[in-house]
């Protein structure tokens, strides 16, 4: 295969941090080359150098056989490099077609050629077999459809190299299959694809070559044939993780959380479930099934039109977040950057935020009690680095997630709702978070877990409720649940089957 890209001896340092040290990468046309590693391993820095966002301190980049200096993102795009970042870079108030052709909008005499714009976008979507209306507003689409539009935008520039950074992090296993079809189509078109993902199973399914980074160094590059997830984990973290999803068996107590006939028009209907002390209950379903909407309504963020929520038998009447917190409910949201943290604030300020009243006397916050509380949570959850004055947005994704969890654990909740608790975190941080969940269950916390990663739900949960189109379609004990059973219920086919 033709070599599309060579990155030779790339090194990059920031003040006090050696981000990359002498890293090599070779990507070939018509090949998927995966890059894996823990958060902070250097994956994003390497790709930002390729995109022209950073300049390397040492090393060279060769495109099409010629050594090249990439001056910036616009220069990278002109040289045939397409970037699809984990955080979608789209405009919600523009149409699908306008987003796909952004930066290359067909125009004449200063006026947009609407027919040409629609035809060009439709041609790209047709190539992907994507049933998306080019005239629809981007903001009206599901997350999975927006992800397809993001990739289509990069594809429309006719790149020779496309970088996909965690493209399935917001998708369920079922919806990810549509994206895999697109990746294989681009590979068949001869595009060199650099694929970054924490989902090791999809890496093994898609990749031809795998490069492992650890602490800014290239540990190994090898063909995916014969490579196992266990071997990748050992290379990534420098140790064996024999159980990525550890299940700790603990005594199950009385019912703590009861949800009875909860209904919110257009989101979910007649949802009934319960969670016992020490129990981990999974909430499974496809993206759009209503899982997050149910969690938000239980916590009080959204108002339900019917149904009841009870904690330890006492009904939450007003169902506001303040009442939810007062009743002992904590909610770790799906989007930690938007809803879970104050990014520019310190670890200390984030963790103490929900419990400032309990740390105050006559309106004055006891700073010593605050520091002691935060240090205890940081130590318990293994936040790294354990510097409580450090800004949260300087931490890795896994450590940011630990801060979100620490914030609510400081409130000592009776019920903990975890919405996608391991999304976008590396395998080492994932194992740490699962161990924390197990310890919370052992302490008697009732846990409601939402995850689009089906193996996670199956391995960690004691029971599983499955939602399809806003309704509970199955309640499964862990002994009877498997991927096929859950997917049948999630697609609404269980009763039909």
UniProtKB/TrEMBL annotation:
<dbReference type="InterPro" id="IPR017871">
    <property type="entry name" value="ABC_transporter-like_CS"/>
</dbReference>
<dbReference type="InterPro" id="IPR050107">
    <property type="entry name" value="ABC_carbohydrate_import_ATPase"/>
</dbReference>
<feature type="domain" description="ABC transporter">
    <location>
        <begin position="250"/>
        <end position="494"/>
    </location>
</feature>
<keyword id="KW-0547">Nucleotide-binding</keyword>
<protein>
    <submittedName>
        <fullName>Sugar ABC transporter ATP-binding protein</fullName>
    </submittedName>
</protein>
<keyword id="KW-0067">ATP-binding</keyword>
<feature type="domain" description="ABC transporter">
    <location>
        <begin position="5"/>
        <end position="240"/>
    </location>
</feature>
<dbReference type="InterPro" id="IPR003439">
    <property type="entry name" value="ABC_transporter-like_ATP-bd"/>
</dbReference>
<dbReference type="InterPro" id="IPR003593">
    <property type="entry name" value="AAA+_ATPase"/>
</dbReference>
<keyword id="KW-0813">Transport</keyword>
<dbReference type="Pfam" id="PF00005">
    <property type="entry name" value="ABC_tran"/>
</dbReference>
<dbReference type="GO" id="GO:0005524">
    <property type="term" value="F:ATP binding"/>
</dbReference>
<dbReference type="InterPro" id="IPR027417">
    <property type="entry name" value="P-loop_NTPase"/>
</dbReference>
<keyword id="KW-0677">Repeat</keyword>
């Amino acid at each position: 295969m033709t070599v599309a890209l060579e990155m030779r001896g790339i090194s990059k340092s920031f003040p006090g941090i050696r981000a990359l040290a002498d890293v090599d990468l070779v990507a070939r046309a018509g090949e998927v080359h995966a890059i894996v590693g823990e958060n902070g391993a250097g994956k994003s820095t390497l790709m930002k150098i390729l995109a022209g966002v950073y300049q390397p301190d040492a090393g060279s980049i060769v495109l099409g056989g010629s050594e090249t200096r990439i001056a910036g993102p616009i220069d990278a795009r002109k040289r045939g490099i397409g970037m699809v970042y984990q955080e979608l870079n789209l405009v919600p108030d523009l149409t699908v077609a306008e987003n796909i052709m952004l930066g290359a909008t067909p125009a004449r005499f200063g006026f947009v050629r609407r027919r040409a714009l629609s035809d060009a976008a439709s041609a790209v979507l047709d190539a992907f077999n994507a049933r998306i209306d080019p005239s629809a507003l981007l903001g009206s689409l599901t997350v999975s459809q927006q992800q397809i539009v993001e990739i289509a935008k990069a594809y429309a520039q006719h790149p020779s190299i496309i970088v996909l950074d965690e493209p399935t992090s917001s998708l369920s296993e079922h919806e990810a299959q549509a994206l895999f079809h697109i990746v294989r189509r681009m590979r068949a078109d001869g595009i060199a694809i650099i694929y970054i993902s924490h989902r090791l199973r999809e890496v093994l399914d898609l990749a031809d070559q795998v490069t492992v980074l650890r602490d800014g160094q290239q540990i190994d590059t090898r063909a995916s044939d014969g490579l196992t997830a266990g071997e990748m984990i050992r290379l990534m973290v420098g140790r064996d993780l024999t159980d990525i999803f550890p299940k700790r068996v603990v005594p199950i107590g009385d019912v703590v959380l009861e949800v009875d006939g909860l209904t919110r028009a257009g989101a979910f209907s007649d949802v009934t479930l319960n969670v016992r002390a020490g129990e981990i209950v999974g909430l499974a379903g496809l993206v759009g099934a209503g899982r997050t909407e149910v969690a938000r309504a239980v916590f009080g963020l959204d108002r339900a039109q019917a149904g009841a929520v009870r904690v330890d038998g006492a009904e939450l009447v007003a169902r506001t977040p303040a009442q939810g917190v007062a009743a002992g409910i904590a909610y770790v949201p799906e989007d930690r950057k938007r809803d879970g943290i104050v990014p520019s604030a310190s670890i200390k300020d984030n963790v103490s935020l929900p419990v400032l009243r309990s740390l105050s006397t006559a309106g004055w916050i006891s700073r010593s009690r605050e520091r002691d509380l935060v240090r205890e949570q940081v130590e318990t959850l293994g936040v790294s680095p354990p510097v409580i004055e450090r800004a949260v947005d300087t931490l890795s994704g896994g450590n940011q997630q630990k801060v979100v969890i620490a914030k609510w654990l400081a409130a000592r909740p009776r019920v903990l709702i975890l919405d996608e608790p391991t999304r976008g975190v590396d395998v080492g941080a994932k194992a740490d978070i699962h161990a924390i969940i197990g310890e919370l269950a052992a302490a008697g916390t009732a846990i409601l877990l939402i995850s689009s990663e089906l193996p996670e739900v199956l391995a960690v949960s004691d029971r599983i409720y499955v939602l399809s189109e806003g309704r509970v379609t199955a309640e499964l004990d862990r002994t009877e649940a498997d991927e096929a059973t859950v997917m049948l219920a999630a697609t609404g086919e269980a009763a039909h089957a």
